[in-house]
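Example 3.2
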Amino acid sequence: MDMTQVRQAIEAANGKFGEAVRKGDGVALAALYASDAKLLPPNGEMIQGRDGIKVFWTGGLQMGIKDAVLTTLEVLGLGGQVCEIGKYDLTIKPEGQGAVKDNGKYVVVWKQAADGTWKLLVDIWNTNRPAP
């Protein structure tokens, strides 16, 4: 596995993630995940499957998530899968309110789909903001 090519593919997918957030497109966000993916949001229950992930991200977009920038720090090979470690910067702007910035760190396990694209399989993140 050429890790340089894998990292480039992951960075391109991360770019599509941010683009989908800016467009408010929950369907496009969910399409970046494997059909059997798991989403592990902070302070929430685990979400399994692309349909649940679409509902989660669509709800977040409706609540005001306006931008997401994902920065890959490292990609580690795990046999047929890879693990990405990174950081995120998020802009949330609920209607009628000022923008709120959030940032944190994440770990994503990626798997290669039959068509050769890389899909998020397990996605977990943690905010750097203190708990309320």
